[in-house]
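TA notes, week 10

Several of you asked for a full example with nothing omitted. So below is the full record: structure tokens for the whole chain, then the designed sequence directly under it. When grading your own attempts, check the secondary structure regions first.
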């Protein structure tokens, strides 16, 4: 199981039966194994998570499936399909749906912002990719807004409580200032993952080191995989 960080929230995960690409927006993708089918996931329409150029980036690979949130505009979907070869598959998913393929199974959660989060099962592994499903809370917001966001986030997390994740890709956003850790911490303490990758850091990778130094992260800090630059590669045997 190999994971490569590309930029922002984009990761490439290589498993024995398929390659997964999450939320490509920019950056250089590595050369992929031509023998493996490729699944490109697009969690939502924001341009730091979605770039239609992903079709061009993957044009030389024989088997590619695009799995995207239904909030991707129809004009963008049609443009991607027009540019792609006839053998490409384009799957559009709403929240709380499932899709089954020979290599993997996908289910979606409803984002607390736009689009969906993905839960993927393959090769006896389970992967969680948050997209923008996160505890988006800000200093100065009303008590009502804060509580509504808390309840919305916990509601989605309750749908996967008790599941055992091998990989999780979780938001850690410096724009939230002192609240940057709330969503990440809740996930790790209530659900957890063997290997948790912070993402959406806007290049402020020191935020990951800050999280790991905080007393509240003691119970899970050994499971957090710090990323510090584009192109980093991580290999796990389990």
């Amino acid at each position: 199981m190999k994971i490569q960080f590309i930029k922002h929230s984009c990761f490439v995960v290589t498993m024995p039966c398929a390659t997964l690409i999450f939320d490509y927006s920019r950056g250089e993708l590595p050369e992929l194994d031509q023998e493996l089918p490729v699944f490109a996931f697009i969690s939502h329409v924001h341009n730091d998570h979605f770039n239609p150029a992903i079709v061009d980036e993957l044009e030389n690979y024989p088997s590619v499936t695009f799995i995207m949130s239904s909030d991707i505009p129809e004009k963008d979907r049609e443009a991607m399909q027009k540019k792609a070869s006839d053998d490409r598959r384009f799957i559009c998913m709403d929240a709380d749906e499932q899709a089954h393929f020979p290599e993997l199974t996908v289910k979606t959660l409803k984002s607390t912002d736009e689009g969906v989060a993905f839960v993927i099962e393959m090769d006896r592994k389970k992967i969680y990719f948050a997209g923008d499903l996160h505890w988006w809370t800000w200093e100065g917001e009303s008590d009502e807004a804060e509580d509504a966001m808390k309840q919305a986030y916990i509601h989605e997390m309750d749908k996967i409580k008790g599941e055992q994740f091998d990989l999780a890709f979780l938001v850690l956003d410096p724009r939230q200032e002192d609240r940057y850790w709330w969503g990440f911490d809740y996930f790790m303490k209530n659900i957890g993952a063997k290997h948790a990758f912070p993402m959406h850091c806007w290049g402020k990778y020191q935020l990951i080191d800050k999280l790991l130094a905080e007393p509240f992260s003691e119970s899970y800090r050994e499971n957090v995989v710090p990323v510090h630059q584009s192109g980093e590669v991580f290999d796990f045997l389990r």
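The mean pLDDT is 96. Use that as a sanity check on your answer.
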